[in-house]
Amino acid sequence: MVKNSVISIISQKENEENRGTVEFQVFSFTTKIRGLTSHLELHKKDFSSQRGLRKILGKRQRLLAYLSKRSRGRYKELINELDIREIKTR
After folding, report:
1. Which tens digit of pLDDT belongs to each residue from 22-35?
2. 47-72 burial, b for 16+ CB within 10 Å, e for fewer?
3. What phi, psi does 83 have (nearest 5°)?
4. What is the C-alpha to C-alpha distance for residues 59 and 29, in angstroms, rounded to an integer?
5. Which of 31, 44, 60, 80 is most buried, with most CB under 10 Å away?
């Protein structure tokens, strides 16, 4: 949970400036995903939350694909900062 608190401090600084950027949207989806993942560890049969998690994962994946096509450097920096896996490119 220490990592999440550091990320939340970073988000508060960026929250005021650039909410519409792809990086901020991916960041906000990542925090939602981590929260839902911890929720689903406790409530394994919560199928509504599972569906919501899959929808958010898909949105984040589409945004990451867009960012990797537009700016590979910003994409690499973002996935390293958030500690998420790189998407598979076709």
Report:
1. 999 999 999 999 99
2. eeeeebbeebeeebeebbeebbeeee
3. 60, 55
4. 8
5. 60
